[in-house]
């Protein structure tokens, strides 16, 4: 708690949040571009409706404004760790499916995967500042890629990228909330949340 | 009993006088004026190919007693065409509103029903008292990829029509224009204008949902706009204004991440600072003055401008026989 309140910690948090917001903005722009490319290269309809895909973190949230800072960080971190796995799976499937035939799409996927990893790291750093530390990833094996047909995999990929685009917007908003001085936007865990 | 009936433009309308027999002697009036018997078939009133002028109160009176036997209001109109529906969020993330209108009037009363579906959930659209053709919805979720489906149905006595809009949460975000735009000259800077504005008051939380801005400006004498996009702050200094020219300036706003640009703000006008013009005398006054005093007004041979000792300002004159050349140069600039 003391670390979370020190001026140095406050400055560090603000700095991490500012950089995180910029990273989220860049990530979103790249994901939107990637979505256009993905839809085109996979022969999909851009307006295709994709129902909730199992294992894909959903950005939609109720009472968003009532969340504590720690809740925001934890939910974001869980989401980006999941996206890291999902994008890696997509990249692997893409390589198996097309090999070097569509290097541009592969590179775009890899670039977004890198940004997702960087963002997850940012979130872990922010959680460390809260003296809480990020939840461990050890012992939680990555869920295996479901056995889907080619078309289902394409639709799943579309769902992944769409949700990631939403998360990128949400994350920027979440980080802005963390920089607000009000108690509601603070990152300190409530009594109820303390381990 | 008074009745109401609605008929289409161009229809033929037959009105019965209540329970009176066909061969009863009756008098019909329209808005209090007797209707000619040529429009009667027995006691029935026949109106052929009705138009809007036929709308009004029709009354039927028993022939001899003048008892009112039947009364109806006739409204002539049309079934509704497909309504025009628009939804927009100018107060993100609180909610959004939808507003509607008919492309052409029906001339008879219409009833509007709106439904808003988000996934499996039907949402309540609270009708505004004013304007009547608008309702607003509170967001229950944010950052959803599930689209909203808004269906507006308009019904009147002659028919119904509907339209549906489908959109996602981010697409309809469009702030109101910035407010209180002010443009001022900058003292001693003939090419600068300082512009400031405020976030639209309808935008609920600019700290968490910051806006970015687009400023456009041009001198009144030109058609081409200059544009500047500003990612933060609510002020900007224009540094490349043409000296002495009146400018028109507008600002638009957009959420930093999502949605579309607002409409342009109200336009403001401003002219950059200019140095106060020095007042000059005619040659005759120069001659008169120099005859009274000696060399104080005589510029040195190399001087092309007015004597520094000359007073600038109202009521004062400066002596300078090359002033005409300077004036001519300024004149070219102001054309």
From TrEMBL, chain A:
It is found in: Cytoplasm. GO terms for biological process: astrocyte activation; ciliary neurotrophic factor-mediated signaling pathway; negative regulation of neuron apoptotic process; positive regulation of axon regeneration. Keywords: Cytoplasm, Developmental protein, Differentiation, Growth factor, Neurogenesis. Pfam families: CNTF. One of its GO terms (cellular component) is axon. The keyword Translocase does not apply. GO terms for molecular function: ciliary neurotrophic factor receptor binding; cytokine activity; growth factor activity. Signal peptide: none annotated. Gene3D superfamilies: 1.20.1250.10. Its main location: cytoplasm. CNTF is a survival factor for various neuronal cell types. Seems to prevent the degeneration of motor axons after axotomy. This is Ciliary neurotrophic factor. It comes from Glareola pratincola (Collared pratincole).
Automatic annotation (TrEMBL), chain B:
Belongs to the type I cytokine receptor family. Type 3 subfamily. GO terms for molecular function: ciliary neurotrophic factor receptor activity; interleukin-11 binding; interleukin-11 receptor activity. Residues 177-277 form the Fibronectin type-III domain. It comes from Glareola pratincola. Residues 10-60 form the Ig-like domain. The keyword Acetylation does not apply. Pfam families: fn3. GO terms for cellular component: ciliary neurotrophic factor receptor complex; CNTFR-CLCF1 complex; external side of plasma membrane. The chain crosses the membrane at residues 310-333. SUPFAM superfamilies: Fibronectin type III (SSF49265), Immunoglobulin (SSF48726). Keywords: Cell membrane, Disulfide bond, Glycoprotein, GPI-anchor, Immunoglobulin domain, Lipoprotein, Membrane, Receptor, Repeat, Signal, Transmembrane, Transmembrane helix. The lineage of its organism: Eukaryota, Metazoa, Chordata, Craniata, Vertebrata. It is found in: Cell membrane. InterPro entries: FN3_dom (IPR003961), FN3_sf (IPR036116), Hematopoietin_rcpt_L_F3_CS (IPR003530), Ig-like_dom (IPR007110), Ig-like_dom_sf (IPR036179), Ig-like_fold (IPR013783), Ig_sub2 (IPR003598), Type-I_Cytokine_Rcpt (IPR050379). CDD domains: FN3. SMART domains: FN3, IGc2. One of its GO terms (biological process) is positive regulation of cell population proliferation. It is a lipid-anchor; GPI-anchor. This is Ciliary neurotrophic factor receptor subunit alpha.
